[in-house]
User: What shape does this take?
Amino acid sequence: MEPVEQVGKLKPVKSSDFHKNISTVASGGGITFVGKLFNNVIRLILAITLARILGTVQLGYYSLALSALNISMGIALFGLDAAIIRFIAVMRSREDEQNTWESIQVGMGITLFLSTIIGIALYAFSFYLAENVFNNTDLTPYLQLVSVFVPLLVVNDQLSNAMKGFKQFNLSVLAQYVYQPITRLVLVGILLLIGLNAKTAIASYALASLTASGAMIYFLNREFPLKRSFRVSYKILKEMVVFSVPVWLSSLLIQFQSNIQSIFIGSLDTIAGVGIFSVASQITSVSGEFSSSINVTSKPIIAELHDKGDIKQMEKIYQLVNKWVVIAQIPIFLVMVIFPKTLLSIFGEDYTNGNIALIILAVGGLVKVGTGMGGIIIDMTGYTKLKLMNSILRLVAFIVLDLLLIPRWGLIGAAVAVLGGEGLVNILRLLEVYIIYKIIPYNRSFYKPLIATFSAVGLVMLTRKFISPDTNYLYAGLNIGVMLLTYVAIILLLRFTDEEIALYKTFTSSIKSKFRQNGGK
Assistant: This one.
């Protein structure tokens, strides 16, 4: 399958600075990771607060409404979320200012128009969806509420994507992962005093994006002045639409798949089950934050390397990045698999019934991260039709498995469906990247995290005989400490390569420098 033709044909190999590119990935990934970590701390505080105040049923309504919001956003983005990153990155590297500006106009203008139409449609059909899909008309006002916020959150996303195209990851992170969650935390704190319920929680989720959007408009204008004439050539419009349509269909399927678990559990099981599953899913999502941070910052680099025809350097980044994200992923994975009830009990005893589902979801997360950033490579090198095929296959797998397993096993069935669908498509991506470019995300040094993992698990299994039970936070903390110390010690004993040491230094120094900069302002 040939890549979709866009931004010109693939050029002959040009010299690329590997250390500069990997430094960009490391520094941008470091800043993004710290931002996401901060965001997740706030999200955890909010999740615990909402879970305890709202209860499982109200949290179920809240989760279903946000699922509808996310699906609506996926439709409105029209695949231009990936397109705006790729086209800005390539045009910027070519120093083509006019086409850079046109890429921004297309990426923002089309999505704003579509999000307005889709928000109106969601409001109009909210009662129909509540009655016929969920058999619960009480959901209607929640769907009507989220419909108002569709354009606001779509614009927020596209502003962030534009900043990533310019490689201004630190500014995007500051807006989305610092300003936005702090605003939401403040709003929820106020609502606790005057009355917090599912509706006001939804409103705080959406309105918090206003601070992030305002900051990103300011940052984007500082990087690339926006006071220009509005004009878009047919050429750039066509190229972006041709690129974005398969990406849109694929992203729509992914977005639908990401929220389909809540929909199926709500219709085939219970509303309370939706609340429990959403908590387990939130915990699992933390394990992939380091990987997603690195992947986000890799996108413009992969697009540029492909535009220059430098596949050799793409392979080096593919392997080095994958090893590091696996090293970071494994400890979090082990905590979720060995101490699932302890984690879930933080949200309340009613949520501990999701312990088996959490373990299965954690395995799915490890498979997703461990198979490398094949999806990013397929996206950023123009194989958008292949991306669409993968998404169709995954959605079909999810639907079939959900319909077969949720009525029989409930939450566990939904988790198995996630594992099956994610495992299938990520292994397939790995094979596709190898077939197209003859590169894989592994090298000989991959034995190191495996040895560290088995050593840490073995020692924890031994110490658990003396330090128990798991549901006691103190004892669980001691067990987790023993496991993490063992894992880190083994990794350090096995030593890093010079490139890995350079990556680590860049990663940590970028974080320190940004903290110093922000501290001095």
Summary: The chain has 21 helices and no strands. The chain has a mean pLDDT of 84. Residues 65 and 142 are 6 Å apart (CA to CA). The radius of gyration is 23 Å.
